[in-house]
Write a structure and sequence with these properties.
Structural class: mainly alpha
Number of helices: 3
Helix content: 40-55%
Strand content: under 5%
Order of helices and strands: HHH
Shape: elongated
Largest sheet: none
């Protein structure tokens, strides 16, 4: 399997892809799938607070909200590409 090194967290540090056993051992995709909607809602709440205290303009907050709403729809889609080989978060 060929993986674009620019898309993985281990890219640039190593010349070869990690062994599949290490990918499975260090994966977080199974948790990310379940937590992503809550994480995105938390990010929206944080952006809302930043707008409330004046660190973001209403327009900036609106743009962020649109982006987060789009991401939320994407991660809820059964076609979202949750890929173990892109997950190496360790």
């Amino acid at each position: 399997m060929v993986v674009d090194d620019k898309q993985v967290t281990w890219g640039g540090r190593f010349s070869e892809q990690p062994d599949l056993l290490m990918q499975v051992f260090g994966e977080s995709v199974s948790f990310d799938k379940r937590l992503a909607p809550f994480d995105l809602r938390g990010s929206l709440g944080h952006a809302s607070m930043l707008a409330h205290v004046g660190l973001l303009t209403e327009n900036e907050f609106a743009e962020i909200k649109i982006g987060i709403d789009e991401l939320l729809e994407e991660v809820k889609s059964p076609n979202f590409p949750w890929k173990l080989e892109l997950d190496m978060s360790t």
